[in-house]
Amino acid sequence: MLEKFRLAKAAEIANLRRLAEQNALPAPIAWPRPSFEAAISGAHPAVIAEYKRASPSAGAINPELTPEFVARTYAQAGAAAISVLTEETYFQGSLAFLEPMSAPGLPLLRKDFILDPLQVRATAATRASALLLIARMLPPGELAACIELASSFGLACVTEVFDENDLDKANDCGATVIQVNNRDLDTLATDLAVSRRLVGRKRPTQLWISASGLSKRPQLDEMAMLGFDAVLIGTSLMQHADPGRALSRLTGARRA
Q1: CA distances, 106 to each of 83, 88, 124, 125, 244 (Å)
Q2: Containing domain of residue 83, as a range?
Q3: Which CATH number goes with the domain that contains 241?
Q4: pLDDT tens-digit profile of 94-153?
């Protein structure tokens, strides 16, 4: 599965390299970004609500819901941050979604397959406050370099792990925000046992996020009790005509 995603990013990376050779890459934004780390350090668990139009496991998911509408409704429902799928081939995403989704002022996580420092540079030119790095997709040296480069632009790095080996790599590379993905990459099934198993290795200086397979309040409460700072919820919210209302029902938060 990850190799399919890697191949899908080849054209994007090639285009960024052409732009770099022409000194035509967009400049990083100069104004402060909302802090992603601060946003998920408050309530336990903080909810990172996701805008996802499609996925390999679920197919199309309410693609008619606009970025503007979903961002507004998530903010009204008390989301701490918004995860935005920007991968085009398998998730029907776009980097262009980040601009309109920044309007409510919540930190935005660019969720994509970042394989090259130029993608980090491209993210720095957007309204994103954070980006996703998948430990398994990057050699240790490249993972560490991307984390350092992102930090230089004021971007937080969410380093995603699937197992103990991924976590070892992330820790060795200095990751400070760890996202545990509960999805099996072979079967696409989810199992919260992955989060239960790995969270025992959380370091005091790290923020941890549990992602995939979360759709019920008792699950959120359990993740908080185990020590997770935040949960990322996507498909179970996006399947509703009003994702923010679904989030309010899940968390018990009142909408503005």
Answers
A1: 10, 23, 16, 17, 14
A2: 2-25+35-251
A3: 3.20.20.70
A4: 999 999 999 999 999 999 999 999 999 999 999 999 999 999 999 999 999 999 999 999
Q: Has residue 256 been placed in a domain?
A: no
Q: How many domains in the chain?
A: 1
Give residue 254's pLDDT band: very low, low, confident or very high (50, 70, 90): low
pLDDT for 255:
53
CB–CB of 130/151 below 8 Å? no
* Residue 21 pLDDT: 97
Residue 157 lies inside a defined structural domain of this protein:
yes
